[in-house]
Amino acid sequence: MAVVIASLFIILALIHLYHNWRIQPHSLYLSGAIAAIAVVFINYYFFIYGQSVFWLAVTFGHFTPIHLLMGPLLLFYVRGVLSDNHRLRRIDGLHFIPFLLDLVFRISYFQVPWATKLWLAGEMIRDPNRLHDFSHFFYPPPNVSLTLRLLSMIVYTGFCLWLVRRFQASRPRLRQIPPKAAGTVIRFLTHLLTVCLVAELSFFALQVIFLTQRDLTTGYILSSPLMIIAMLGILSIPIIIQLHPEVLYGIPRWREHSYQGEIPGSASSSSSLKTEPADLSADAFEGKDRFQALALRINEVLTAQQPYLDPEFSLDDLARLMDVPKHHLYYCFNQILLKKFTQIRAEYRIGHARRLIDEGQTSDKTLEAIGLESGFTSRSSFINAFREVTGKLPSEYLDALHKSGEVLNEEQLS
């Protein structure tokens, strides 16, 4: 079961990293922490349960420094989610010192002949308690290093839980955070950290038993309620992420300087075409979701600059255009505008196509050409989107206009 969980975690880390690092850069830390958890499980599996001398020789002692990365990466992720800031500080480099020291201490074991490592693995498979007899191969001894690694993870996880609790206590006073943005994410963080802490304490208890009872058997470890609880708890994390992917987007914080004033790069910013909302100040949205101002700015940018006419236009492009974090836009689309970005983009493109049709441009352009000019990449995507938005095919819409005489000819336009 441990290998299955570890495999799921590695796959989850890769998928999560691929799909979400652009949305929220601190997801890099979560992916790293998930991968570190997977390494821990694989190491423990081959030591406690595995019967392969080769794979135990490969995993035992070589990847243990990675265990010391789980705590710092978890801290960076939780801190980034709560502060909406993924950047590391210079002092954060101190968190990597234990990993580097353990890596240096492992150099002597890396140089042990492969035949000796196979012999060690075979002895430990026959009797896990033989690990006590091999202390001279490691510095510090395995019982010390294992204990320190587990204590490190427990301290980091406990501190992260304290950060979450402190955030919850101060949440009512944080006017920069929209009311619906924090609840699900905080519950996920609490569950994630609680599960990790329970698993770490379970492994620590087993470690104490292993160090104090020389007759410990593999069957005892596998049947231990502590091991079962740890396995089930860790397995729930990828399930929650799949059921509630919004937990990956973080908690957006209102950034006063980013959401007010002129549209970045807009020609209207220096011309009489400039369009100002009635009031986009933070105080104007007191008692409401202040991200409504950002939602207004989204429509303002799309209307003024028509970036959707570019067939390659994406949410990344909109985030760069507005100089706004991508997950802030996600929140606006999902919680305020109540539509996906792709749906709103299609509506703007169809609106542009309808204007071209209404102006009579079908006299010298095909409907397909109008669709391509409106930002669609193919005739089929234009037709499907047009039908979804208007309830009619483009040809049906044009026929209806001809029958009602609403298509403007060139003389009327002039």
Provide a descriptive summary of the structure in words.
The protein has two domains: 248 residues, Rhopdopsin 7-helix transmembrane proteins (Up-down Bundle), CATH 1.20.1070; 157 residues, Arc Repressor Mutant, subunit A. It contains 19 helices and no strands. The chain is elongated and about 95 Å long.
Structural class: mainly alpha
Largest sheet: none
Percent helix range? 55-70%
Separation of the first and last Cα atoms = 75 Å
Report the total helices.
19
Overview features:
single chain; 414 residues; mainly alpha; Rhopdopsin 7-helix transmembrane proteins; Arc Repressor Mutant, subunit A; elongated; disordered C terminus
Concise structural overview:
Helix content is 63%, strand content 0%. By secondary structure, it is mainly α. It has 2 domains: 2-249, Rhopdopsin 7-helix transmembrane proteins (Up-down Bundle); 257-413, Homeodomain-like (Arc Repressor Mutant, subunit A, Orthogonal Bundle).
Topology:
Blueprint: H1 2-20, H2 27-48, H3 53-59, H4 67-83, H5 97-105, H6 107-110, H7 114-126, H8 142-170, H9 183-212, H10 218-223, H11 225-243, H12 292-305, H13 315-322, H14 326-336, H15 341-358, H16 367-373, H17 379-390, H18 394-404, H19 410-413
Helix pairs in contact: 1-2, 1-11, 2-4, 3-7, 4-8, 8-9, 9-11, 12-14, 15-16
